[in-house]
Write a structure and sequence with these properties.
By secondary structure, the protein is mainly alpha-helical. The chain has ten helices and no strands. Helix 3 crosses helix 9, helix 4 packs antiparallel against helix 5 and helix 5 runs antiparallel to helix 8. The chain starts with 6 loop residues before the first helix and ends with a helix.
């Protein structure tokens, strides 16, 4: 039995998983660095930082699209392996490379594209009230620090709303890796009734990042154009975001496994409660 799924149990099991798989997590983080560098360097090249790229030329444009697709596929394959490893670890038999990796990677890449479109649409929808509030604040006061502080806090709240929606949908990725829950709709239904708890988990996870954003934003307002603060804040943010992102990933794995087991148990219970078929009833009467 999966038992009650609570905010505390999700966080506890995620931290337990992190401790039990700490060397695997470190290995994955170190392995992801070359991929990250390749993506950044490739993006810098295509943006013309190292060498101008004439995207009006058909050959250059095709090369840019091809390299982008290759990067996306590599990240998708890596993500599938990571999700597969941690879900199988929760099930007691950790493995690294899932069967049909190419097919699952293609599905995960398409899912990432759809989630990006959803995030964009949600961002546009949420930006309208945020823009109206910001404009009203700008009209009502001429205090630049107050306006900037409101913009920072509003941006954090705005980003959290978008993140919460994507967070709930993201449990589809371990489902794809395990060849079980394969669609965003299926993942959304799987998490039905747990939205508030998922938002609470995400908020607790994001508290360090939100605090860092507020402190960094305040220091930038207080000491504008200070290179040390900018550089130090960037490095500290990168380290913190890596840790927060790791915990975020682990909670998605734990959420998926608990919700998947709960769904399977409910289906099994429902099957056991179903009445016998008519043919069986007739046979019993005879």
């Amino acid at each position: 039995m999966i038992g009650s799924i609570t905010v505390g149990s999700i966080l506890k099991d995620s931290l337990k998983l992190a401790w039990n798989r700490k060397w695997v997590i470190l290995a994955f983080l170190l392995f992801s660095l070359p991929v990250l560098v390749a993506v950044v360097m490739g993006g810098a090249f295509f943006l013309g930082i190292f060498e101008p790229l004439n995207l009006s030329d058909a050959g250059s444009a095709a090369l840019a699209v091809l390299m982008g697709l290759i990067f996306l596929f590599l990240m998708g394959a890596f993500g599938m392996c990571v999700y597969y490893n941690f879900v199988t670890a929760l099930r007691g038999e950790p493995r690294f490379i899932p069967a049909n990796l190419a097919r699952k990677t293609m599905r995960s890449c398409l899912t990432m594209f759809v989630l990006a479109i959803i995030a964009l649409l949600v961002s546009f929808a949420a930006a309208i009230p945020f823009g109206l509030i910001f404009t009203a604040t700008l009209t009502a006061t001429q205090s630049l620090p107050l306006i900037m502080a409101g913009g920072i806090l509003g941006g954090i709240a705005f980003g959290f709303v978008v993140s919460a929606i994507i967070y709930r949908m993201s449990i589809v990725f371990p489902g794809i890796a395990m060849d079980e829950t394969k669609t965003i709709g299926g993942a959304w239904d799987l998490a039905k009734g747990f939205t508030l708890k998922m938002v609470m988990v995400l908020f607790i996870i994001e508290i360090p990042s939100i605090t860092m954003d507020i402190i960094h934003g305040y220091l930038q307002l207080t000491y504008p154009m200070n290179v040390n603060i900018l550089l130090g804040g960037t490095i500290a943010s990168y380290i913190l975001y890596t840790l927060v992102g790791t915990v975020n990933f682990l909670t998605i794995v734990v959420w998926y496994e608990k919700l998947h087991v709960r769904h399977a148990e409910r289906l099994e219970a429902k099957t056991e409660l179903q009445p016998e078929s008519t043919a069986d009833e007739v046979a019993d009467l005879i």
